[in-house]
Amino acid sequence: MISARVIALFIAIITATTAAHGSVPIVVETGAGRRAVMKLCSDASGQLNVDAALHADPKLWPALYVRAEIFARECKYELAIQDCNEALRQYPGFIEAALLRASINVRLGKYAEASKELNYLVSIHPRRVTLARALSDRGFSRRAQTHRFAMANRQ
After folding, report:
1. How much is the average pLDDT of 2-12?
2. From CA 56, how far away is CA 48, in angstroms rounded?
3. Is 117 exposed, middle or buried (0-12, 13-18, 19+ CB in 10 A)?
């Protein structure tokens, strides 16, 4: 019978011979706007960094999305929708911006627009996590619309 020490030694030898060692650093070449977004992601100071990134590259859709999230948290919904629209114009496949825009439309009571957006997102078969969020938001939108309709009928 093979002892546990022999098995452990065998595993250690196999692991040591197959391990890959990275000695060359990975260098990513980016423009000024991309570097600004990377800095933005590492800093926590928020709006000032987003503005700096957009100043460096006004068409930088990730920065537009981050600014839209900030505007949404600050209840500046119209500004958030403008940034989502611009981010989606720059990169039409940016599903996160479409989800944010739909959730803002629900907050503004624009249920038809939110529903149309969420139905489209479900129809394009996104990743499972995104699909789950879209379905959840669509259900929330329908509940909010029903609740608002019921409250209006009570008055």
Report:
1. 66
2. 12
3. buried
| pTM for this predicted structure | 0.61
> Are 118 and 137 a contacting pair, CB within 8 Å?
yes
Structure-block tokens of residue 8: 């452990």
Contact 84, 100 (CB under 8 A): yes
Cα–Cα distance for residue pair 105/137, rounded to 1 Å: 11
CA dist 18 to 11, 15, 24, Å? 11, 5, 18
pLDDT in tens, 64-75: 999 999 999 999
N-to-C CA span, the chain: 83
Residue 108: its pLDDT value, please? 93
Q: And the tokens for 53? A: 């990134």
Which domains does the chain show, CATH number per domain? 30-145 (1.25.40.10)
